[in-house]
Each structure stands twice: as structure tokens, then as C-alpha cells.
Design a protein that fits this description.
mainly alpha; elongated
Length: 71
């Protein structure tokens, strides 16, 4: 995963730099460099990315919210 650093980009809070993605500055060279790093390391990061994404599975989130409201 490659995302850009910006005050309104909440995705940066989900990234552990080098573990499940990369955060680029909002400039062409930084973005290109981080895309290259992601392409080079996607195999070793694959499981960490899946694991991070599973935390935000919609069905799990809905169940938790229902548990709060429905008891």
C-alpha cells in the first residue's frame, strides 16, 4: 500500500512504514520512490497487509457496533 502524507488523509494512520505500506510526501519523486519500494517488497509485506486489512473487515465492525447498540 502506498499513500500520501496529508493532514486530511486518515489512511496514514493505518500504515506501519515498511511493514504494511509506505507513506509518500505529496511530490512526484517521493511517490515514485515509494511505489518502487512497494513493488520490490510486496512479497514480504503481503501477510502484514492482509493482517492489517482484516482488522477493518466490515462484517466484524458491524457486529461490534450492533453489540454496543443491541447489547
Amino acid at each position: 500500500v502506498v499513500t500520501v502524507q496529508h493532514k486530511n488523509n486518515a489512511a496514514t494512520k493505518l500504515i506501519e512504514e515498511g511493514k504494511n505500506g509506505f507513506i509518500a510526501n505529496l511530490e512526484q519523486k517521493s511517490l515514485a520512490s515509494n511505489i518502487e519500494k512497494a513493488l520490490e517488497s510486496y512479497k514480504k509485506m503481503k501477510n502484514a497487509c492482509k493482517s492489517a486489512g482484516n482488522k477493518y473487515d466490515l462484517s466484524k465492525i458491524v457486529s461490534k457496533i450492533e453489540g454496543v447498540y443491541l447489547g
